[in-house]
Amino acid sequence: MCHFRFLLKKQKRTILMFALSLSSLLGYSQKVTLSGMVTDQNEPLPFVNIFLKGTKLGASTNIKGQFIIQDIPLGTYTVLISSIGFETLAAQVSLTKPLNKEMNFELVENASSLEEVVISGTMKEVFKQESPVPVEVYGFNFFKADSSPSFFESLQNINGVRPQLNCNVCNTGDVRINGLEGPYTMVLIDGMPIVSGLSTVYGLSGIPQSLIERVEIVKGPASTLYGSEAIGGIINIITKKISRAPLFVSDIFSSDWGEVNYDFGIKLDFGEKVQSLFGVNYFNYQNPKDNNNDGFTDLTLQSRISIFNKFNFKRKDNLLFSIAGRYVYEDRWGGSLNWKKKYRGGKEIYGESIYTNRWETFGSYELPLKEKFMFQFSANGHYQNSAYGNTIYNATQYIGFAQITWSKNFRNSDILLGTAYRNTYYNDNTPATNGTNQPYVIHLPGIFAQNQITINEQNKLLLGLRYDYNSFHGNIFTPRLNYKWNSLDNRNVLRISTGNGFRVANIFTENHAALTGARTVEFEEELYPETSWNINLNFVKKNFSINGFFLGIDTSVFYTYFNNRILPDYDTDPNKIIYGNLEGFSVSQGIALNLDMSWTSGLKVLAGATLMDVSVKENEERFRQVLTESFQGTWSIGYEFNQKQLRLDYSGNLFGPMRLPLLGILDPRPEYSPWWSIQNIQLSKTFSVQWEAYGGVKNLLDFTPDPRSIARPFDPFDEKVVFGNDGQVIPSANNPFALSFDPSYVYALNQGIRFFFGIRYTLKTLQ
Q1: pLDDT tens-digit readout, 126-146
Q2: Are the C-beta atoms of 194 and 380 separated by less than 8 Å?
Q3: 658 bridge partner residues
Q4: Pick from 162, 307, 330, 305: which is nearest to 235 by CA?
Q5: Percentage of the chain surpassing pLDDT 90?
Q6: How far apart are CA 550 and CA 83, in angstroms?
Q7: pLDDT for 454-488, tens place per residue?
Q8: How far is it, in rounded angstroms, from Cα 756 to Cα 696?
Q9: Residue 198: partners with Cβ closer than 8 Å, 6 or more residues away
């Protein structure tokens, strides 16, 4: 009996354990494994984020594009697949059976971001993460989030890049990179040197923004590949590829100040072998305002039209042949509110009037040879007729450029060899041509070589050398070295760059201050080419989380050392601008940080900050460079309300104090500008695939500079200024601070808060 009871208890325990095991097994079996592959045009995509919306379950693809998510409870889910440079994909999946589920996904490249492919750093198309040269890329959507009437203004929210106004009257300016003046920045269109010389100050407007695909920025000398003027950096404007440009685009907006901007673009086919991309930009502002009550226009009145046309020709074996052209005409004036064109060039009423006529052409042709040879060319003509009060400045400039490159992959080397020739013709009515209207012509032939060596999967080395012969200044050598290391998953990238740069200066074509105001120009000596040495340390880190959050960190430390630098001296004599080669050295150094953050909720944040020190040491004295900030911060925050087809964008910048040019020790204006910020907000509404409306507020804080920015605007011809025998201004009863007329004390636009509204129509394909 006792034995029977023992067996019964043992059997109950066995049944109970079996039931518990079965229950556990059944519970475990109610979970699913989801696996598969993510591809782009049938090629596997590594490091793609896949996660189940509303859960903490997710994974990333491996090198082969494969992923696996385990222990998924039964149910219906939304799978989100995201990767930088591709459209985020959402797919529904129903997991109703305890089985292993396999799903494959195909991502589509995000044509608006185009984050991956760049050409500016090496003159060849490479994946951005593979380039040994750090390149920043800003797509069309970045500029669309803060609609502006000119490309010049659109650059204001890029960290380390600042559009600088050079005149309070005519509002011309240049683009500075890391505190270096505009002439140190080379502006390219589709890789060709188009914007230089006269256009550095007067030709940056009028590029149709609807035709811009992306903008690539390289900071630091790039003279090894691009030659003179690339001493501070490169801004390469890449126009849309005709094959994926919309058939038609129209974009018009206006502000309550009376500004009107219109962009128009159309794609045309001429048979099966010729495609064309045609665009027009028109800007008009004819509403004089004087909110700071200085008697002068706060914003220059302008009428500008720019016409752009690009052709692609289909050739055998898909060989490249493209040619493009642009024409710009602009009429702008600023000055006394009662100025009329009949006063142009006279001393009755002060005004600054500038007529600009400019044409450009550039193209690429791949030679029909077994080896890869590319012929590229560009040419431009710039005609300027201008009057700064009673100072007349007429100038003509022609620049022709041609180069042939040969590229070859050989084992672990990617070799690029090239030869280039540049011819510059310049003529004006200033001392730049000896005051006798004698034009000068500069011949600049050169050769360059570059070798990108792949040491292994994680290490690359780029070596470059360029030799140019300047017909005025002789031999010029510019070496270059770049090194890149990346982690195996490419989420950490370290780049080290060093190189030499050179530039031949032309004061009157590049520095507006040499013409405007009452100061006279003086040259201490013959100006020699400027040279620089630069080193840049760049680190990029990408962080992906399983809930779809992305964080990109891009930080750089830079140092540039200048010899023979040419700087305008405003301090020695308040009545002069003195130019000469620096008897000492100049340094531009600092640290920059960029953050790129995005959430699957639709929130995206780009933020950056640059802390810099641009200083000059001469005669054992060190001082900060004029008109250069010590701090710059930028941000662009966007949020998409997908269900309502709304997008909200908030962008802005913050600048630290910069030293300003004073007119002597009695000048009552502050020597340094205040901290200042320009902030904008824009709301966009998509009504259909074609129609979009947008509007918002520019200069939300209504910031304007000190109303005393223009010295003695009531006496622009210095008729009541008393000068001593030495040419210096003498204090008098009506001029106690010993000032003369001067509009060069400028750091921000006088245009205050304004509201704007626009409508955009885009037709991608025929219905």
Answers
A1: 667 778 888 888 888 888 889
A2: yes
A3: 629
A4: 162
A5: 43
A6: 9
A7: 999 899 999 999 998 988 778 888 898 999 999 98
A8: 6
A9: 382, 384, 395, 397, 509
